[in-house]
Amino acid sequence: MYALPYIRTNDGNAGEGERRLEEEIPYGITMIEPIDQGIHSVKICVVDTGYYNNHEDLPILDVDNDGFSPYGEGELWNVDGHGHGTHCAGTIGAIGKNGKGVTSVNPDP
After folding, report:
1. 65-89 pLDDT tens trace
2. For residue 49, what are the contacts with CB-CB under 8 A and spacing of at least 6?
3. Low-confidence ranges of the chain (pLDDT < 70)
4. What's the confidence (pLDDT) of residue 20?
5. How far apart are CA 3 and CA 7, in angstroms?
6. What is the SS3 assignment for the chain?
7. CA-based radius of gyration for the chain
8. Reported pTM
9. Whole-number pLDDT of residue 10
10. What's the CA gap between 89 and 69, in Å, rounded?
C-alpha cells in the first residue's frame, strides 16, 4: 500500500515523501463494470480489520452512526490496527479526482 506512492521518478525530481503521480488506478479497477446508482446513495459495509477514519483519500464517517464493532468498547471499528480494512475500503470508495492516493470503483462516494 505504501510502496508505489513513494517511488521516485527516474530523473530524481520527486523529493522525499513526494508522489511521482497525481493519482493511481489500482490493478483491477478497470476490469469492473460499475453499477449506475443514479440519484440513490449506496452504503457499503466492509467487514475487515477496521477503517482508518482520518485517511486523506476516504470519506470521514460518523463514528456513532456509520460503524459497529461486535467485540466491545475496546475494539473500535474506526481504528484500523492492521491496514487491510482501510485498503479494502479504498478499493471500494476512495475519493477520485482529488490528486491523492488512488481512485476506486466508486470515486464519488
Report:
1. 888 888 877 888 898 988 999 999 9
2. 80, 81, 82, 83, 84, 85, 86
3. 1-22, 34-35
4. 52
5. 7
6. CCCHHHCCCCCCCCCCCCCCCCCECCCCHHHCCCCCCCCCCCCCCCCCCCCCCCCCCCCCCCCCCCCCCCCCCCCCCCCCCCCHHHHHHHHHHCCCCCCCCECCCCCCC
7. 16
8. 0.67
9. 46
10. 16
Q: Which cell numbers in the block locate residue 58?
A: 476516504
CB 86 within 8 A of CB 58: yes
Cα separation, 77 vs 69, whole angstroms: 5
C-alpha cell at 53: 477514519
d(CA 36, CA 5): 30
